Amino acid sequence: MSELTPVREAVQTLASRSPSPDFGELKRRATRRGRRRVITVAAAAVVIAGSVPAITSLDGDRRAVQPAVPNIPKADTGTNGWIALDDDDGIYLVRPGQELRPLLRAGSDEVSELCPAWSPDGTRMLFTRFSFTSESPSYSAELVIVPVSESGSAGAPTAIALDGYGVPDPTKGWYPGRCATWAPDGRWVAFAGRGEVWVADTQTSVIRRLPGLEPSELAWRPGTDELAIAGDNGSDPEGRSLSTPVTMYSVSTGEIRQLGSVEAGAITWSPDGSTLAYTGGEDDPGELWLVDADGAKARLLVADMGRANHGIGPEWSPRGDRIAYQRVVGGRGESHEVVLVNVADGTQTVLAPPSVDRGRKWYPRSVSWSPDGTTLLYDAWYELDSQVGDAGSGMIVVPVDQPSRAALLTEGWSAAYLSNQSWGRQPP
Amino acid sequence: MRDSEIQELYAASYRRLLGQLIGVTGSVAEAEDVVQEAFVRGLSHPRRLLGADNPEAWLRTVAVNLARSRWRRAQRLVGLAPRLVEEPPQGDTDGSVVLLQALRMLPAGQRQVIALHHLADLSVEQVAATLGLPTGTVKARLARGRATLATLLVEEGNHV
Averaged over A346-355, what is the pLDDT? Predict the structure, then answer.
């Protein structure tokens, strides 16, 4: 008898106890996939309006938000620096042509470090650390900010405790909004908690919580201290994002308002902050729209984007001339390609799934621009000829004007959801 | 016609796949989710499912990759918290859930190769292809996983 025999018998026993779902219900789930969901615009508006007076800080004060004087550097493209990735045992850095190297080790099996994001100037990295506390027992969460030298060495980290943040329910998935994102001023960061948006001051550790929001996307408007909040992942285990009115939150004034009549599930700002590009939820028609920063002059840029199953929504190039989005290839459920839209005239260029490393074809899960706007980073998977489905994962880099020169960055890696601040700029 | 073929496949393989995925995930609930989702995807793409050389292997691959990638981070967190896993329900006299807890305490990478090799009866090469790993890594994780699990089972046995 093998030592694994008791385990085999145990899982078989547990499987036999589990009731089989009705096959008809599985068929109905498959059928429902294509249906558009109803947008609960009115309900969302009530939630947002109700959230204005309820902004709180973690020190327990229920008071007016203290204005902060924004000191926001001018947005521009930067020289490509390190790419930050997370793994079970810590944060790693990699650059095209160089080996993967650890930046920080978690130091314990009871610690997990997730979602690295580079500050706008490329000098600091932010990530979220979850620790299992055996005394409670419970999880604790904190934001960690660590200075990183040009050579990729870590300095002394500082941490901001996230009391009350909670831990994602493993049955309900994880989504991009849970990764923190830096404001253009390099001081404030925003991220989604359960049912609310958190905005943290990395200098003072003050945290503001905006309740009644479970966004699929957060995007700071370049050149300002305004955060755009869009979409709703709700508590759907499949995590499909719905459209909501786009909410704007100002750090300096504390004001929350709606951006005109714009409703979106995914958003991206132009690098100069003058224009927002947006799409609906995942079950809405695949249309890409542009609107001025004040919510006026909405215009359709792409009438038929096709359909996407996951990944980051449209991403505006740091150069400002193109927007990248993903769409399913030929109706195949998990196979995506990248499309580049010329913002000036709406013309599109398809980046077919690149053949990289022994001719394997790689499909993106998510994509992110390099700071100089020349290259896309793919969190990708490949398919083997003999097998249907995801056979392996890795990170690849794709020069958008020379996609045939795509290259494997590191294999055996999956970022699950790639932060749009994964690829840092070279520090000035 | 295709639905009826998939329904037959469902009747024949659902519980077997569920057992294997319980091993992969260390959780009955997560295994139910990913196996059912794999069937939903098969129903959405019947030509892909029924056109595969081995439809059950197709479903297993989809379910395993769902477990690994879609909920990867959340699984990682669960793996950190052995005290937060499901407690054995009242009346669990055969120790199945206790054994599941031991399995769940393995690092995810080791648990996956253990489950696919020892519960799904895949060869080392097939496990490597399924998980996108070199065969050497699979062998190393199998060795480490078996050693860890043996220790855990002894410890759990002392508590049963």
Answer: 94
